Amino acid sequence: MPALRSWLKRLDVKVLGLYEVAPDLEAGPGTAKLAAQIAHHFLHDV
Fold this sequence. Notes:
mainly alpha; 2 helices; about 0% strand; elongated
């Protein structure tokens, strides 16, 4: 995920927060999947 790596470098991220939403409130069909991928990437590569 090149975008995530870029954000982590540019923003000096110390904490990554994730928000779980109800399916009816989800912005799109891939929002929860993207959040899970970002969390997985952050936890395993940092």
